Amino acid sequence: MLDALRDVLVTPAEMTAIDNAAAASGVDSFALMRSAGMAVSAAALRLFPQALRFVVLCGPGNNGGDGYVAASALADGGADVAVFALGNPGTVKGDAARALGACPLAVLPLAAYEPNLGDVVIDALFGAGLTRDLPEQAQATIARVSERRIPVIAVDLPSGVDGRTGEIRGASFTAAHTVTFMARKPGHLLMPGRVRCGTLEVFDIGIPARLVSERTGELRLNTPAAWGLHASALDPATHKYRRGHLSVLSGGSLSTGAARLSATAGLAAGAGLVTLASPAEALAVNASHLTAVMLREIQGTEELAAWLKDKRVNAFVLGPGFGVGKQARDFALMLCDRALVLDADGMTSFEKDRTDLFERAARGEGRLVMTPHEGEFARLFPEIAADAALSKIEKAQAAARLSHAVIVYKGPDTVVAAPSGRAVVNANAPPSLATAGSGDVLAGIVGAHLAQGMPAFEAAAAAVWRHGEAGTRAGRGMTAETLIECIPPLP
Q1: Which of 216, 251, 280 is the last residue of a domain?
Q2: 490 in a structural domain
Q3: Which residues are annotated as a binding site for AMP?
Q4: Which residues belong to the annotated binding site for (6S)-NADPHX?
Q5: Is the pLDDT of residue 480 over 60?
Q6: For K(+), which residues are the binding ones (predicted)?
Q7: Is 412 exposed, middle or buried (0-12, 13-18, 19+ CB in 10 A)?
Q8: What values do phi and psi take at 302, rounded to 5?
Q9: Which residues make up each annotated binding site for K(+)?
Q10: Which amino acids are annotated as binding site, given as ranges?
């Protein structure tokens, strides 16, 4: 994969435009297909040298053409190869027809394939552009292959996975390995498609990187390349206030743990100072658990307003364990001129009337980040969540535009989106992060980045990445407390 395209995500529509631009610029489209098919055959031989037979399943489009090229290459290399086609091969057109014509093997109907022990399937039925449910015959073949646990190598994307949304169109193969071309597609990263891809190989088939870059938007894989310029190492001589003062607002005496997790995570993630703002009833329990994190009594809006006169307190986390209600709404509206992470109860408090929050965010001078999981997203953005035509990326982008906030749409495929449309998809989070308190830790890391002066989008994206790395370091038995201990330094 070219370094210039390493983190780029290309939608199926963009990939079509890229292919058309390559052809218009004089690039030989059949040469591209041949390069793709050869890459697939090389992967098959490298990964499954013990295969007794390679079974290539070809569809009616260019994905099938890649399959015919791969079948020819495998046969030329002396492998036992069988080819099966969906539909009438005589209707294949363009480069795929040329690849079929050059294939020396008999092509049998897809329905005739019976999986045998020792088979390795090369799935070239449909690629990333699939937008409808698979035909019944393709679904029946997938069921037989899955039942017999035949290993599958997918061409571009496992057939049945929607390349734009990651959703399953009726059924899909679960591949051991997927070979895609030039750049990742959203369906490789979004659930449930991501778990159907196996290991992912991105192969450069020869389209100039310039043509790819000119026709892609602002969608990227979440890596330090997306935010690293804002995460330079701190000057060792920097005063603690230059590293930011983060405040986390605590709930009542019976619900203080979540806020303490956020506060401790914020300190570990690099904020110069962290204060837990606590109601009087919770002061004692919070004080008994805090050492480096400071404590301040904030009973209501008057105390908060007085504290806000100190401009050194420049970032806030509101929501973890805070409680749903009027005070959460009042506090959030007061904090919209500062950097604010609105999490959990903070977001749910606006479920019935979000207008004031969104309008305040639009005209405020602060930086607002909201961190909903799927349920919270559906409560705050019900009309967006209900739109089945949208991918998770598109939903996060729509919510960011509507709310004038950076949205961290959490999950195993967390998406971070800005009101401008810029978005990243995260891919480094282990399943062990699905544990109590994990989201509170993430909110604290975002808050620490905001306190240190990072822009809201970069603060959120970097926090999601560090959160995922911490989960990997903490291992399968992690708890929220051990997760904090494993937060890595900013790259």
Answers
A1: 216
A2: no
A3: 410-414, 439
A4: 62-66, 127-133, 156, 258, 321, 373, 440
A5: yes
A6: 63, 123, 159
A7: middle
A8: -65, -45
A9: 63, 123, 159
A10: 62-66, 123, 127-133, 156, 159, 258, 321, 373, 410-414, 439-440
